[in-house]
Amino acid sequence: MNASKVVENLKQRFPNEPEYIQAVSQVLVTIEEEYNKHPEFDKANLIERLCIPDRVIEFRVSWVDDKGNVQTNMGYRIQHNNVIGPYKGGLRFHRSVNLGILKFLAFEQTFKNSLTTLPMGGAKGGSDFSPRGKSDAEVMRFCQAFMSELYRHIGPDVDVPAGDIGVGGREIGYLFGQYKKLTHEWSGILTGKGLEYGGSLIRPEATGYGNVYFLCEMLKTRNIDIKGKTILVSGSGNVAQYTTEKCIQLGAKVVTLSDSDGYIYDPNGITSEKLAFVMELKNIERGRIKEYADKFGVKYVSGARPWGEKADIALPSATQNEINGDAAKTLVANGIFAVSEGANMPSTPEAIKIFQNAKILYAPGKAANAGGVSVSGLEMSQNSERLSWSSAQVDKMLHEDIMMNIHENCVKYGTESDGYINYVKGANVAGFMKVAKAMMAQGIV
Ligand code: GLU
User: Fold this and answer.
1) In this predicted structure, what is the pLDDT of residue 313?
2) Residues 254 and 225 placed together within one structural domain of the fold
3) Same domain, 118 and 13
C-alpha cells in the first residue's frame, strides 16, 4: 500500500468530505509500515474495504415545530465496520452535521472501539437538527421522527447508537421511547440510557474520567503527578464537565471552559461548587458559558478558544479541528507539556506535527476518549445479562482494565527508537491490527 496514493484516490471519489479524508490520511500514514509487512492484506484490498464504510443510510426527517410549521432535516447512520462486534457509535445532532463529518467519526470509531478491548464495531449517525433553542416538545417530536426511520436499521446485535454532541440523556430517552413504541420490545438498542431503564452507572462520567485516567498514565511515563497542575479544558458539555470533575478530585486546577460563543478564564480554578453551577446551567437551563463569567466575575473572551492562556496541560473536549497549527504553537511556547483529547479529532494535522516535534505528551482522541464508548460496551453487557453493576465496579473496569490497557497498547506499538511514545501511531496500529486480522479471517464480504 502506498498511503498517499490511497488517500489521493479517496479524495477523488469523495471530493466533498474533507474531514473524512483528514481522518483517513492520519491513520494511513501511521499504519503504512506495519501494513506493508503483511502482503496478504494488500492482496485482499483490505485498505479500501476498511476505509469505505460498509453502508451509508441517509433519510429525511419531517417534524412539526411549536408554531405548527413542518420542518425537514437530514438523518444519517454510517455503519462503518462490524467485524469485531455490532456497529456501535454515537448520534450527533448539530447544524454542522453532514455526511463527510459523520464518515470521519464512524471511521475513527472503528479504530477506537477496536482499542477498547470490547467486541464493538464502528458506526456514527446524526442529523443537521440542532436542539439548541428548541423546546422540549420540539426535541421530542424530532427524536420520534428520527427514530421512525432509524429503528429498522438498528438492534442489540446489529447496531447500537448512543449520544454525542447535541444528544444527551433527554434525547436518548425520547429515541428509546419511540423505538419501544414501534417495535413493542424492550431491548438494549441504545446506550447512555437513564439509570431507571437500563443505563449504566459511570456512563455519563466515562469519557471525561477516562481521558484523565489516560492522561495520568502518560504523565507516569515522565514521573509527573497531575496534582497541582493547571489545566485548560475546552467545551462545557458532558465530556468537559466530567473531565473537570476528575481533575478537581485529583488535585489539579482547571482554569478554562468554553462553548461555541467564547471561553471563560478562572485563574483560581473551577471548584466543585462552581462546576455544579456549570452542570445546572448547561444540562438543565441549557444556557451559555458566559453566564459563568457574569456570576463569578471572571474573564470572558467572546469568539475565541482558550489556547492562549498559560497552563501545564490541555484537554480539548469540544469538537473537531479546534486546535490549529497556530494554537498548537502558542500552547507549546507557553510550556504546555501534555495534550490529551476528550473530543474527536480536535487537533489539525499541523497541530499534531507541532506537538510531536516538540516531543510533548500527545494522545489522540481515539485512545484518550475511548472511555465513553467503553462504558457503553459495559452497558450492553449489563443489558444482555439483565443485571446492573455498581459504580465502583464499572469505574474500576474503565480505569484499570480499559484505559490502562489502551495506554499499554499505545506504548507497545508507538514507542520510537529515541524512547518517545508516538501515541498516534500506537493507537492506530493497535486498533488497525485487530480489525485487519478479523477481516482477513472473515473473507471478502
Ligand atoms: N460519541 C461517543 C464517542 O465518540 C460515544 C459513543 C458510544 O457510546 O457509542 O465515542
Assistant:
1) 99
2) yes
3) yes
pLDDT at 157: 98
CB atoms within 10 A of CB 38: 16
Ligand 1 close to Cβ of residue 373 (< 6 A): yes
Q: 344 in ligand 1 pocket by Cβ < 6 Å? A: yes
CA gyration radius, the chain: 21
Burial call 379-394: b when 16+ CB within 10 Å, e when fewer: bbebbeeeeebeeeeb
Looking at residue 60, what is its pLDDT?
A: 98
Q: What grid cell was written down for 355?
A: 506537538
Whether 395 and 209 have beta carbons less than 8 Å apart is answered as yes
Taking the centre of ligand 1 as the mean of its atom positions, its distance from the CA of residue 380, in whole angstroms, is 13
348 close to ligand 1 (CB < 6 Angstrom)? no
**Which residue stretches of the chain have pLDDT < 70?**
none
Structure confidence at residue 176 (pLDDT): 98
Distance 29 CA to ligand 1 centre (A): 25
Ligand 1 atom closest to the CA of 369, numbered from 1: 10
88 in ligand 1 pocket by Cβ < 6 Å?
yes
Structural domain range at position 99:
3-185
Q: How many domains is the chain built from? A: 2
Residues serving a catalytic function are 124
CA of 372 to the centre of ligand 1 (A): 6
- Residues 263-292: pLDDT tens digits? 999 999 999 999 999 999 999 999 999 999
Distance 392 CA to ligand 1 centre (A): 21
Q: Is residue 217 part of a domain?
A: yes
Pocket flag, ligand 1, residue 85 (CB < 6 Å): no
Last residue of a domain, one of 305, 328, 363: 363
Judge if 120 and 261 occupy the same domain: no
Quick one: 227 and 177 in the same domain? no
pLDDT of 370-389, one tens digit each?
999 999 999 999 999 999 99
Question: How confident is the model over 388-436, as pLDDT tens digits?
Answer: 999 999 999 999 999 999 999 999 999 999 999 999 999 999 999 999 9
211 lines ligand 1 (CB under 6 A): no
315 domain residue, yes or no:
yes
Say yes or no: CB of residue 110 within 6 Å of ligand 1. Answer: no
> Atom 10 (ligand 1): residue with closest C-alpha?
373
Grid coordinates of 59? 433519510
CA torsion angle for 429, 433, 436, 437 (degrees, to 10)? Answer: 170
| pLDDT tens string 350-373 | 999 999 999 999 999 999 999 999
Distance 92 CA to ligand 1 centre (A): 10
The residue whose C-alpha atom lies closest to atom 8 belonging to ligand 1 is 373
- Whether residues 255 and 305 share a domain: the answer is yes
Same domain, 140 and 268: no
| Closest by Cα among 192, 264, 189 to 233 | 264
pLDDT at 32: 97
Are the beta carbons of 322 and 234 closer than 8 angstroms? yes
Q: Residue 259 in contact with residue 301, Cβ under 8 Å?
A: no
Domain identity same for 130 and 266: no
Domain limit, last residue, from 185, 215, 243: 185
Specify the pTM.
Answer: 0.97
Let me know whether 10 and 139 are in one domain: yes
Tell me if 419 is assigned to some domain.
no
